[in-house]
Design brief:
The structure is a homodimer. The first copy, chain A, is mainly α. Chain A has two domains: about 45 residues, Arc Repressor Mutant, subunit A (Orthogonal Bundle); about 130 residues, Tetracycline Repressor, domain 2. Chain A contains nine helices and no strands. The radius of gyration of chain A is 21 Å and the shape is elongated. The first copy, chain A, starts with 13 loop residues before the first helix and ends in a 15-residue tail after the last helix. Chains A and B meet through α7 and α8 of A and α7 and α8 of B. Chain B binds a DNA duplex through α2 and α3. Chains A, B: Keywords: DNA-binding, Transcription, Transcription regulation. Chains A, B: This is Transcriptional regulator, TetR family. Chains A, B: GO terms for molecular function: DNA-binding transcription factor activity; transcription cis-regulatory region binding.
DNA sequence: CTCCATAACTTGACACTGTCAAGATACGCA
DNA sequence: TGCGTATCTTGACAGTGTCAAGTTATGGAG
């Protein structure tokens, strides 16, 4: 009998995930400031101090939410990578599309991740998922890194463009001046980058 | 008819600015979540409900802080523009340097502005300062807009790169993989953009 | 000069929050 | 069976945003 009229201990390890679900739901429809430990507890149907037991404090809950967000974020990029052609430029486009698809499908999570929230950066879950996402970018950019330069060069170039594009799209800072104009596709912008393969002689800079 | 029928008190209109100062100070050394109306009141030496009178609510105070941040932000870009040469590419580099200088000198304000905070977008101060900053970008990008394309193309390209670069620099997401490596100068990245003047024949897409 | 309307600020209250301490409960295991 | 421990609850406290009502001083009308 898992359920009993006196609900104690019934959830085992499931409650932690339920609380994160509740936090994500609150984040979605009330914003990061509308998220509270007590309301997460209420949604999950437990007492007000239960989240504190599992996550330590509010920072812990936010960190857990961010960790889940980074996992999903990486999943999006890997999914688009798998469906794309193996050509290096196609792969760059693929992670970018995964990046933008995630930002559009999970706007609140995306903004939350990169909004300088007060998170516990020492949390193993968060740092693992964050490093995993960055590694996807690094691997995809590798073919474009020239032997005499640092990998960061290409990585910053690609990541900055797609991240800035996503951020400005979501916060609407771009459309303001002329609301009717369509945002040009990201691919169009990507074509303006001087990316060249490591052994491609067309690079002249 | 001295000024207007409004200012009438011992602190005159000065308290409002003092409260914004207090909010900025709290933002600087405790983060956006550590900012509270009551503590701003305490710093300014007034009662706990006084900020509510001037700003309506916490959202109002945050909006006022963001408006001041956008004004300072625009000032930085204009200052760098004035010191630079008039050549279009030099001007692009100038606003980028102003952008990055602001982000570095006022890290908390920069992150606060672009962190999807719950602000009152209908506030005339905020929207005016925000539009002013965007107009600086638009004007500087204008020489690179081809007659058959939308201005947004170039604007997104430049803004995304510099914004993404600044954001990733400040949140430290870039250095993680190799802490010892120096971040390449932004100018180096800018050189990888295929920017060409409207009448420049070297544009081949 | 008096008087007073009103802007600027204070006082007080309420519901809500995070966080901690201490208690209760049930499961795993001996 | 009985106990230890992880899990969850209860209760309390300080701090918060926000509203209503009270207070004060200032500029202007008479």
């Amino acid at each position: 009998m898992t359920d009993s009229p006196k609900p104690t201990r019934k959830r085992d390890g499931r409650l932690r995930e339920d609380l994160i679900d509740a936090g994500v739901a609150l984040l979605r429809d009330r914003g990061a400031d509308g998220m509270s430990l007590r309301e997460c507890a209420a949604i999950a149907g437990v007492s007000h101090a239960s989240p504190g037991y599992h996550f330590g404090n509010l920072k812990g809950l936010k960190t857990a939410i961010a960790a889940r967000a980074f996992r999903l974020f990486g999943d999006f990029m890997l999914e688009f990578l798998a469906k794309a052609e193996r050509a290096p430029k196609a792969q760059i486009l693929a992670i970018s599309e995964g990046y933008l698809a995630f930002a559009e499908a999970h706007k609140e999570l995306f903004l939350f991740m990169f909004s300088g929230q007060d998170l516990d950066q020492t949390d193993p879950d968060l740092s693992a998922m964050s490093a995993r996402a960055y590694q996807i970018l690094r691997d995809t950019c590798a073919p474009f890194v020239k032997p005499d330069s640092h990998p960061e060069t290409v990585e910053i170039l690609v990541w900055s463009l797609v991240h800035g594009y996503a951020q400005l799209m979501l916060t609407g800072k771009i459309r303001k001046a002329s609301p009717g104009v369509k945002i040009p596709a990201y691919k169009f912008l990507l074509d303006h980058l001087n990316l060249s393969l490591q052994d491609d002689p067309s690079s002249s800079s």
